[in-house]
Amino acid sequence: MLKPVLSLVLILCTTLVGNYFSLKLSSRRETVESLLQGVTRLKTQICFGGIDIFTAVSECFGADIIRNLPHDGESISEYWSRQVDLIPISSGLNKDDRKIIKDFGQNLGVTDIEGQINNCELYLRLFEDMLNNSKELEKTRSRLYRILGFSCGAVVTLVVL
User: Fold this and answer.
1) pLDDT tens-digit map of 25-40
2) In whole angstroms, what is the distance from residue 41 CA to residue 47 CA?
3) Mapping DSSP to helix (H, G, I), strand (E, B) and coil, where does residue 51 land?
4) pTM for this structure?
5) Confidence of residue 136 (pLDDT cuts 50, 70, 90)
6) Helices (H), the chain
């Protein structure tokens, strides 16, 4: 009686692990989509808003990236870098993603309006590539993770029985 229950629990747990990895891929895609929308809004704010960069960033990215108000005397690049470090692991972003996002913030508020617009356009293309990559990974690996999770649990169960 105990073996079938433990086998079922094992299969359930490994299936949940597979689903967890599948959800991380979805979270990464959603985070990058949100970031892409934020950069698009920021570009518009820089062109037409006429507001300071801190206000523009907080309005365009909202709770996705901005969680705290800037410290006194902190530059926008330091502020951005600090906020990127606070993005939770559950967002699915890897180290390369975080580095690209931090690099985007290094050029905020440094140049004139045209330079910042060019920076936004450059990173829009990079974020679009990142989005396409995340969609492709989600498409190819999401189902694989779910199937592997279930299959590993089933194989271990068969070996134990």
Assistant:
1) 899 999 899 889 989 9
2) 10
3) coil
4) 0.80
5) very high
6) 2-44, 53-65, 76-85, 95-106, 113-160
